[in-house]
Every structure is written in structure tokens, then in C-alpha cells.
Amino acid sequence: MPNVETSIFTEMSILANQYQAINLSQGFPEFDTPNFLKDKINQAISEGKNQYSPSNGLPELLTQIAEMVHRQYQTHLPDAQKLNGLNNVTITSGATEALWVAIQTLVRPNDEVIIFDPAYDSYEPAVELAGGICRHITLDAPNYAINWPRVEQSINEKTRAIIINSPHNPTGSILSESDLDTLQSLVEKHNLYVISDEVYEHMTFDGLRHESVLRYPQLFNRSFVVSSFGKTFHCTGWKMGYCAAPNELMAEFRKIHQYVTFCSFTPAQIAIAQMLKEQPAHITELASFYQQKRDVLINALKDSRFTLLPSKGTYFLLLDYSAISTLNDREFCQWLTKEVGVAAIPLSPLYPVEQRPSYHKNNKVIRLCFAKNDDTLRKAAEILCQL
Ligand code: PMP
Ligand code: GLN
Predict the structure, then answer these.
(1) Which CATH class is domain 35-278?
(2) If DSSP states are collapsed to H, E and C, what string results for 195-244?
(3) Among all ligands shown, which has an atom nearest to the Cα of 29?
(4) Where does the record place the Aminotransferase class I/classII large domain (predicted)?
(5) pLDDT tens sequence across 46-67
(6) How large is the average pLDDT for residues 328-337?
(7) Ligand 1 and 94: CB distance under 6 A
(8) Could you confirm whether domain 8-33+284-384 is CATH 3.90.1150.10?
């Protein structure tokens, strides 16, 4: 894979550690996973629940996921259209595995897959390893909304799938109901599939609703929906996620999943099933928890020379630094980490290599992660306000 570099998230975290900078680059929480989960996983391990789970995942976890989905997204649907955990959900080793397997399930040599830039970095290598080709569509600043006429123009007889990501990493934009309506009519008209990366599904702000594909049964019929417990329960290192898909797609997905990992870590499945059942408030309170952190960071940066872009979801905020430096975003982030003491993510590595020179000419934007303690956010902002 000659075009694949070390992930920018790895690169910036190594640099942050080396220079002891405040690390607002790679997205992970500074605070711990809830004690309830730690107690339950410890208990599962000490009770000897340490062998393989069923390949698809523990039935009690599959069922709890379906119940959460019913509560969050499917109260308006008749029972027959609601997600069936046992048939339609598979537990994966992180959303990364779910995305990987969904892509291997769908994409055949020379198939085209539409992705939106800036894009999370695992999509394109997975498409290429399946022999597919990514068709890139740029999301335009400052709102990073999808230009649907542009999408329709890129569809041809080779197009197989569209990968969407809402709430969107790195921009913090979210898709609306009308975006999903348009997506649905396009995929039906052109006989396409959807991979919907919804790992930040529980983090939308200012009363905005997350438009999950799981709300729309007709769209779901052509979709793989991917989520991550790492984001939801502050345990990114557990690498626990899942994929939901209709019966026939899920049957194919499971054939591949069984030969990628067979199953995911059993004690974590036991603990998460109990967490979903007994502590549902953790999820319903997550949006306000992160909105408060976003607002701490926004307030602390209000006297800085950065221009703040809107963050409607995720735990990321974009800053435009054109008033501060003429360096390109990668150089700026290296300088910021080494000389200033705050690490951030440049956006250009999330665009195709051939677009980066022109991207650099027009864009001076970096990403900060606000999944940090308020003190850390204030300390970082104080430093950034001096630039
Ligand atoms: N998709 C997006 C948009 C992400 O931000 C992440 C986490 N970095 C993932 C997928 C992967 O999630 P996980 O850590 O559960 O594999
Ligand atoms: N999702 C995290 C981010 O966007 C990084 C995950 C990773 O390091 N692969 O920062």
C-alpha cells in the first residue's frame, strides 16, 4: 500500500508525548470509563468468563443493543420493523473492525465507493484492499455539508456504496433528516448500499437530533450501521463496537467477521450488556456532558485569534488559524506541539494525497479534541490565547 502512511493520530500522539504537550490531537477521553463497567468486567474475569463468546456476540448484549435502538430511534415503528438483535447485530472489535468487514462484504474489484473528505482514515485503505476505488467528494467549509447534486454526478454503473459519517469526524457536522431522505432516494434509484459510521451517535448538541439510519427502515434495508462502545463508554482501549444490518447483509457480514476475529472480548461483552441494561442514563446524558465540555473550550478560546467553526456533534472542534500563521496545517500542528505545548490534528492527511497541495493553499484548519477534563481544556486554551 504505497500511498498509506502512519496514521496522523499515531503521529501526533507520539509527538505530543515526546514534547509533553497537552494532547488534544488523537480522539480519546482523558477521564475513565464508569466504575460500574470496571466492576462488571473485573467480576466477569474473576468468575472465569474468559472463553470465546458466540461469534456474533453474546445474545444478552445483542438484545440490549436492539432495545437501546428501539428506545432511541424506533419508537415510531411497528414491532415487525424494529431491529432484531439476534439476527441483525454483530459485536466487533471496535467500529474499525465493523467498518472493515462491512467494506469487505460489499466491495468487489473495481467497484467504486463514494467517500466524503475530510474522511476518517480507515475507509480508503479498506476499500482499496477489497480491490475497490474511492470516489472522493469534498465537504465545503465552514459547514461541511454534503453537496447532493455533486454526489449524483459521481454515481456511475460501477458505484456500489456510499460511506456516510454523522456526527462527522473531524468536522463536527451532522446530517439532517433531509440529507437522509435524499440519500435514500439516491441509493434506491441507483441500487447502491450505505455504510453509516455513527460512532458519535450519542453526542449531538444544542437539541439537535442524531439522524440514525436506524430511524428509516427503507434506508436501513440497504445499509450497514456501525457504532463504537469506546466512544459511548469512555473505553476506546477496549476496542468494542458493533454493526447492524438487515438479515441478508448481516448473514454475509458474519461469514467474514468469523474469519477476521471470530468473536470479541467476552468479559467486555458481559460488562457492556449490564451497563446498557442497568445504567441507561449514561447514554441519555452523554450529549449534555460533551456539550458542556465543548462550551468550556469555546468560551476559553473566545479572546484568541483563532476562528472557531461550528461543532454540532462528536468531541471535536475545528479552529481556523489563518490570522496566526502562514504555515500549512501539518507544519502548524508540529510547531504547535513542539514550541507551544498543545497538540492538534491537521486536516490535510484526511484528504487524498493528490489534493493536499491545493488544499494547503486555501485551508488553515486544525482539529482539537475536547474529551478532556475542564482544567486541561482551560489550560490548553490559555496557551492558545497567547498566539
Ligand atoms: N469511525 C470514526 C469516525 C472514528 O472517529 C473512530 C474512532 N477513532 C472509529 C470509526 C473507530 O472506532 P473504534 O475505536 O471503536 O474502532
Ligand atoms: N478516532 C480517533 C480520532 O479521530 C483516533 C482513532 C485512532 O487513533 N485510530 O482521533
Answers:
(1) alpha beta
(2) EEECCCCCCECCCCCCCCHHHCHHHHCCEEEEEEHHHHCCCHHHCCEEEE
(3) 2
(4) 21-383
(5) 999 999 999 999 999 999 999 9
(6) 98
(7) yes
(8) yes
